[in-house]
Predict the 3D structure of the following.
Amino acid sequence: MKVIAVDTSTELSSIALVDSGTVISMASHTDARGHVEAIGALFAELELDLNSLPDLIACGVGPGPYTGLRVGIAFAQGLSAAWSVPVVGVCSLDAVANAIIRQGLVAPGSEFIAATDARRKEFYWAKFDGSGKRVSGPNVDLTDVVRGLALEAEIPLVTQVLPHAIDIAACAVRGDSLDVTPMYLREANAKPSAPVTL
């Protein structure tokens, strides 16, 4: 199965073309506020044969910040509409868990917590079993709370891995897919102003 995957749920924007588990090409860019500017350029770097469209588009749906999530999701939906190819969402923390296992960062078969920076001294996090299946979460909590949970459960807390499109593709092919709806785990920073009377 040929998949184009994209993730913009963290400061790392990434896109990949994966065919039957083999990465054909990929590109990434790190900038917490440059998702819009980066995504088109990253797509241009892929080695695409437009005579052989992908079977599936997969995108990270978070949790993550509002603008970053919207950029990747809108891009994936645009490709889906243009090419008449189905699109699925993948929890970005599931992709992180896939990368953790793929890179051997935890002992085989061990439960662990995967977490990404949610700013404000908070983590987006989820707990995974030894196969990388999510058993709880995603959640957002203070970093100290998540560290305490990991200590109490005596399981590793992995915070240094960011979701990447190659892992989004792997999760989508495995069937760990969701609706293409952004996962916002906290209220927006912006609040509507009070009505103005003239």
User: Anything to note?
Assistant: The mean pLDDT is 90. The first helix runs from residue 35 to 45. The helical segments are 35-45, 66-83, 92-102, 143-153, 165-174.
